[in-house]
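wait is this the right file?? whatever heres the structure
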């Protein structure tokens, strides 16, 4: 025992951590531990309070986000079908735009296709109808011409309004001509030339006595005018098809509001 005590004292003296300047390293930091524990408690309480406050919002987001993700990752069948048809329409319209510019495959026939399109323009038809109305001397002829003028004006207004609402551009960057600006035919949907050609062909077939060859030529003219707008890159295929549909609907509208001979004579006298 007496020999072990000096040895233990010698060990304590030789131990560096037992010196006065290193004693603080052997003692636990009570203040720091208390501050850490208090900060942990406060942060835990704040986190719990925040979780309680944000629980309704998080629950709403958890209810909404999966639905939105599902809508984006699993689109409806109607959306897939619509996008597929739209892609096919754009692709086919670009392929059929063989006269869109001079460098196209049929660029040399662009002038002839434009001339065919002018035959379905509204300004020449309105001017021709007014000239025929002035020279007409029969009541039946004046009645037909006045209703034809009404149909042409309705066509311009309806197509211009629909184009302003849709604001769809054509498959190619083709600037509208002067006559297009006069009739406000600056957008693609629906095709004004197609609607006018369909309305005029149906109007003439219903109110004029024509031979069968002339009837066939009239229908072919309407089809050629409509699809010539696709060839020069001004309209898509669906624009032309919808133009044909609107043209027929315009004809039905004119038939419903058909002006009688007395009404036409009154308007002519005022004019």
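ok assuming it is, sequence goes like this
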């Amino acid at each position: 025992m007496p020999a072990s005590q000096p040895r233990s004292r010698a060990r304590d003296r030789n131990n560096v951590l037992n010196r006065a300047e290193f004693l603080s390293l052997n003692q636990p930091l009570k203040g720091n531990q208390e501050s850490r524990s208090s900060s942990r408690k406060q942060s835990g309480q704040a986190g719990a309070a925040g979780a309680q406050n944000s629980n309704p919002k998080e629950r709403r987001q958890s209810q909404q986000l999966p639905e939105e993700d599902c809508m984006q990752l699993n689109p409806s069948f109607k959306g897939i079908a619509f996008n597929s048809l739209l892609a096919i329409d754009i692709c086919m319209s670009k392929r059929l735009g063989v006269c869109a510019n001079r460098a196209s495959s049929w660029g040399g026939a662009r002038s002839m296709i434009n001339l065919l399109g002018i035959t379905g323009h509204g300004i020449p038809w309105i001017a021709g109808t007014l000239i025929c109305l002035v020279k007409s001397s029969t009541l039946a002829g004046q009645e037909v011409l006045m209703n034809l003028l009404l149909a042409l004006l309705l066509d311009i207004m309806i197509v211009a309004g629909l184009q302003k609402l849709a604001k769809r551009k054509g498959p190619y960057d083709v600037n509208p001509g002067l006559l297009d600006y006069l009739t406000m035919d600056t957008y693609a949907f629906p095709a004004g030339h197609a609607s006018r050609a369909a309305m005029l062909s149906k109007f003439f077939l219903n109110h004029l006595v024509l031979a069968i060859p002339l009837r066939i030529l009239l229908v072919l003219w309407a089809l050629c005018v409509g699809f010539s707008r696709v060839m020069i890159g001004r309209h898509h295929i669906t624009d032309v098809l919808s133009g044909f549909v609107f043209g027929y609907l315009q004809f039905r509208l004119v038939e419903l509001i058909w002006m009688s001979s007395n009404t036409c004579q009154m308007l002519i006298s005022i004019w």
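Residues 29-35, 65-71 have pLDDT under 50 and may be disordered. so i think its the right one actually
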